[in-house]
Design brief:
Radius of gyration: 24 Å
Distance between the termini: 86 Å
Number of strands: 6
Strand content: 15-25%
Shape: flat
Low-confidence stretches: 1-13
Mean pLDDT: 80
Structural class: alpha+beta
Number of domains: 2
Length: 234
């Protein structure tokens, strides 16, 4: 071993860490640092590990362990962690849509963008089923929702991005719709955009409606007329 190369240093001590969101219990909690491995700077240290630590941190709330790679001199700087924080699908979504969108978010959290794009496309198809769109391909079904004033033309164009993303991920075709005819794989940026478009669609179709009904005390099967404000009331 070269003289200027140093072995990693193992620290078995407990150390209180800054509070952060736990990927298990979804609560901002304090963490305790368990065994950690620190890399000293040397010419043989991998560039991405110099001055960093690998550690197991435990959540004070649920006691679950989380792998962390961070800066040895600043506990608040986390370069990577496992499991990653994954957004939750809105509870207001019908179960088939929520299930598919949850899978899309999990794939995105695992940095698997093409899996995320595929499940976004599935979630969109579940919307068509839930809204009883007319038979046909997705553009026909989306136009049907526009004609019935279920969605706006702008939301339709956003939803079409999910269709393109699903085609690229499943078949490696359709890249020209995103301005790149040679595109055969989706990226994290692509998946992020499609997820945000679908979140807007879900908010419009489901989330805001459920929240509005709850605010007014109107049951899910209550008449639509009760949702309109009485602007003539004194």
């Amino acid at each position: 071993m070269p003289e200027n190369d140093k072995l990693p240093v193992i620290d078995e001590g407990e150390e209180n860490m800054p509070a952060r969101l736990c990927p298990y219990c979804k609560i901002v909690s304090n963490f305790s640092r368990g065994p950690s491995l620190s890399h000293a700077q040397s010419e043989n240290t991998p560039p991405n590990q110099a001055g960093q630590i690998l550690a197991l941190d435990s959540c004070a709330n649920c006691r679950a362990f989380m792998y962390v790679r961070g800066h040895a001199d600043d506990a608040e700087k986390v370069c990577d962690q496992y499991p990653k924080i994954v957004d939750e699908a809105p509870e207001e979504l019908p179960e088939p849509i929520r299930w598919a969108f949850s899978e899309a978010l999990k794939c995105y959290g695992a940095e698997a963008p093409n899996g995320s794009l595929l499940m976004c496309r599935r979630a969109l198809q579940e919307v068509m089923t839930d809204k009883k769109a007319k038979k046909g391909d997705l553009p026909v079904q989306l136009q049907d929702l526009v004609d019935r004033q279920e969605i706006t033309p702008r939301l339709k164009s956003w939803a079409e991005y999910a269709q393109v993303g699903g085609r690229i991920a499943a078949h490696g075709t359709g890249g020209q719709a995103w301005g790149d005819p040679d595109k055969i794989w989706g990226t994290m940026e692509d998946a992020d955009g499609v997820i945000k478009y679908l979140q807007s669609l879900f908010d419009y179709l489901y989330v805001l409606d459920v929240q509005h009904r709850a605010r007014l005390g109107i049951p899910d099967d209550g008449p639509e007329e009760q949702l309109e404000p009485n602007i003539n009331a004194s």
